[in-house]
Give the backbone structure.
Amino acid sequence: MRFIFRVLSLVALVLAVISGTVDSVQSVADSDVVLTPFGTAWQDVSPATLLSLQGFVEHNLNAGSWNLMVQWVLSQPAFAVFLAIALVMWM
């Protein structure tokens, strides 16, 4: 079980480095700081899974929890969310 969490941590760390690299390249190209929100990155990759997560959270918890908790996480920079996931999986 420990091995699985370490592998998931490695995958999250790789995704954090990739999203950080994309943000830094965009920042240099725009000559301004660009931080891609996690929700935008998820929407670009797989909008169907984001909608299914929203339906799951609203059905099992309530609609307010989607607006309070999940929207806050989705508005954070993608590299920071992946780094936090990597840290939690590593521990």
In short: The two ends are 12 Å apart (CA to CA). Residues 14 and 82 are 9 Å apart (CA to CA). The chain has a mean pLDDT of 88. Helices lie at 2-30, 38-45, 47-60, 63-74, 78-90.
